[in-house]
Design a protein that fits this description.
383 residues, alpha+beta, 4-stranded mixed beta sheet, 4-stranded antiparallel beta sheet, 11 helices, 49% helix, globular
Length: 383
């Protein structure tokens, strides 16, 4: 079915993204995978190309366009290129809204120009060794010391953790407040007591630096409080719908790309004297995956359109949860089935299907696990 989501301007932007990938990303990607981190120059190149801060006001160096469809084009093309290591989506779609919606005028002047140029790489630090999806379990604390906070604790599985110059830290500012006693504090590179641990060794997305972060008596100026004091829970819940939609966009794009690769492969690969595509089982596998992708694409595109509608309120959190769990679980199933259809070649690292299998596995976990998504949906229906 023909997609009607994008205009000519969006497709022109898609061409720009593809050119950027061909020139600035793909020639270096294998080295980044070996290094376990992308180069700073790639972030600066993305800034020069106008791929950072798409929704940030022009006065601060951004694109000045909040239309989420541009972000979805970026996510689709990076997914198809199998290049998740350069985490522009994390920077733009997940962290960006915290800065554009919550930052004071002074904070915006201080941080947004570098955010858009690539000179400031960002991260958000929520997960702890003992607390993932359950915000009430967060134990990192920030004590009020007059003109500053004293931050103590640790975080783990933090994407961009090694490269990040600016980290939004979720910390407990009111001990008895439970999930509603949390605040967002911005920790900047070079603050005394802020240390980075290991660049964690993952099974996929090797070039995307994911780290442990440690905070020991870090003095965070009061001017680095982001949003309302003790308001982190509301701020986090407000932004999660876009985060989950962005993950869903990558999920369906990944599934579609794998289906395309595998369809070509089974037409060319022969077994028992004829192409695999002539075997009924293979045709049924392709038919099932194509149908599931088509149905999922229709729903995700509807979610994108709703979230991009300037006259609306954005995507409903429940629909975002539906899109996230369904698209990422589909991506996982398709990756497994496509690898199987590739046979032994699918298990070889140099084949795209093998990398997609490991790179995409995290999709059902970060941004809220599939189980959490189902719980959100179930509560909305059953109370």
């Amino acid at each position: 079915m023909k997609r009607t989501l994008y205009t000519e301007d969006h497709e022109a932007f898609r061409a720009t993204v593809r050119t950027f990938l061909e020139k600035e990303v793909l020639p270096h990607y294998e080295q980044w995978e070996k290094d376990g981190i992308v180069s700073r120059e790639a972030w600066l190149a993305a800034g020069r190309q106008g791929l950072l801060g798409l929704a940030v006001e022009e006065e601060h160096g951004g694109g000045g366009n909040p239309d989420f469809r541009y972000a979805s084009v970026l996510a689709e093309e990076f997914t198809k290129a199998a290049a998740p290591g350069l985490a522009l989506g994390l920077h733009n779609d997940i962290i960006g809204p915290y800065l554009t919606k919550l930052a004071t005028d002074e904070q915006r002047r201080r941080w947004l120009p570098g955010f858009c140029s690539g000179e400031i790489v960002t991260a958000i630090a929520m997960t702890e060794p003992g607390a993932g999806s359950d915000l009430q379990g967060i134990s990192t604390t920030a004590e009020d010391h007059g003109d500053h906070w004293v931050l103590n604790g640790s975080k783990t599985f933090i994407s961009n953790g090694i490269l990040a110059d600016l980290v939004i830290v979720v910390a407990r500012t009111t001990p008895e407040g439970g999930a509603h006693g949390l605040s967002l504090l911005v920790v900047e590179r070079g603050m005394e007591g802020f240390e980075r641990g290991r660049n964690l060794d993952k099974i996929g997305q090797k070039s995307q630096d994911t780290a442990e972060l440690f905070f020991k008596d870090v003095r965070v100026p009061k001017e680095n409080l982001l949003g309302e004091l003790n308001g982190a829970f509301v701020h986090l819940m407000t932004n999660l719908a876009q985060e989950r939609l962005a993950i869903a966009v990558a999920g369906i794009a990944g599934a579609e790309h794998l289906l395309e690769l595998t369809t070509r492969y089974v037409k060319e690969r022969e077994a028992f004297g004829r192409p695999l595509a002539k075997l009924q089982h293979v045709r049924f596998e392709i038919a099932e995956m194509a149908t599931e992708c088509a149905v999922t694409r229709a729903f995700v595109d509807r979610c994108i359109a709703e979230h991009a509608d300037p006259t609306g309120l954005g995507l409903d959190p429940v629909n975002a949860s539906m899109a996230k769990w369904w698209a990422t679980e589909l991506q996982k199933r398709v990756a497994d089935r496509c690898l199987q259809l590739h046979g032994g070649y699918g298990y070889m690292s140099e084949f795209p299907v093998a990398r997609a299998f490991t790179d995409g596995r995290i999709q059902t976990i970060y941004g809220g696990t599939t189980e959490i998504m189902k719980e959100i949906i179930g509560r909305s229906l059953l109370g």
